[in-house]
Structures are given as structure tokens and as C-alpha cells.
Amino acid sequence: GDAIDALAELDTDMARDVIQRDDDVDRLWMVVSRIFRATLRTPKAAEELGLPREVCFDYQSAARQLERIADHATKIAAISLDIGPVDENVSEGLRDLQNAAESVPETAMDALLTDDSDEAVSLATEARADLPAIDARARDVGDVIRNLEDPELAQSLALVVDSLSRTADYGGNIAESALQKAAPSP
Fold first, then answer.
1. CB 35 within 8 Å of CB 45
2. Nearest CA to 7 among 68, 67, 74?
3. Are 112 and 142 in contact (CB under 8 A)?
4. Mean pLDDT by groups of 10 residues along the chain of 186 residues
5. Burial of residue 74 (number of CB atoms within 10 Å: 0-12, 13-18, 19+)
């Protein structure tokens, strides 16, 4: 959200802040990875965490998806530092797409973190069900961007649309993990 705000408002301070926060996300990802690897090496490590190893795997998988989302936010923020003003219609379309895309990993994380299997299935299914509509929004925004007079700006904004679309897709991956956690295979 902050990356899109930085882009729409040409807020270079916010863009730099988003880029800097990616370092924090990368560090957190490394911590989660180390803990997960410890649970693979020593079942006692998972026991000390109070979590089954399968849940540790689900959390590690979700953390990886969140780290990728942060990378795309950084990409959007970097683009915002390199472009000039964005047409208000395009900004509105990007904000709408961002809000929709952002809701998928948020809902998917709620699904992953709930202990109620029925609620997890419902939330994960909801998150996955939003993906086709988000793809359609991304195509609509992409169509508007392709009609811009400045081809370099259009190319940069197309990358933003791609990053937002991938954010939703990564949320869909988290939803898949939530479904597997809620209804594990025998």
C-alpha cells in the first residue's frame, strides 16, 4: 500500500522507506528459515516451538511468499523514484488493484493462522476465489496503461501491475498452504 501511495503521490521519502523496510523483511525471512531448518534437523526443535513440523513447514512457506510480496513492494517503490506524475485515472486503477491484491494474502494469512479448520477452509477459499477478478482488474488497468502516450512510463507502470498481480498470486499460494493445514492428506 505504501509503495502505491509513493507512486501515486510522488512521495520519494515513502518510497525510500518501503525500500528500506525490505531489509527488515529479508532478515525476518532468514530467521524463519533458520528456525525451520532446525525443525528439519531436530524434531525436538519443533517440539520446543510447540508446533508440529508440518505447521512449521506451512509457516515457512507463507513467510517465503510474504518475502516475495515485500520484494514486489520494493520494486514498485523503486519505479516510483524513476517516473514522473501518473495520470489520476491510472493512479485510481492502481490503487483499486492494490487494495484487491493486498486482500488476498491478508485473508490467506488469517486462514493459515486460525485453529478452526472450517474457518480456515472458508477464508482460504475466499482468498483463492478473488484471484480471477483481480486478474481481470489487472488486464483492465493494463489496457489503460498501454494507451499512454509515454512508452517508457507505460512500460514502468506495466511492471507495477505485474507486481500487484503477483502479490495476489502469492496470497493464493498462502491460501493453498492454509487449505493443506486445515485438511491434511492422510
1. yes
2. 74
3. no
4. 94 97 96 93 89 92 97 97 91 96 98 96 97 97 93 95 98 96 78
5. buried
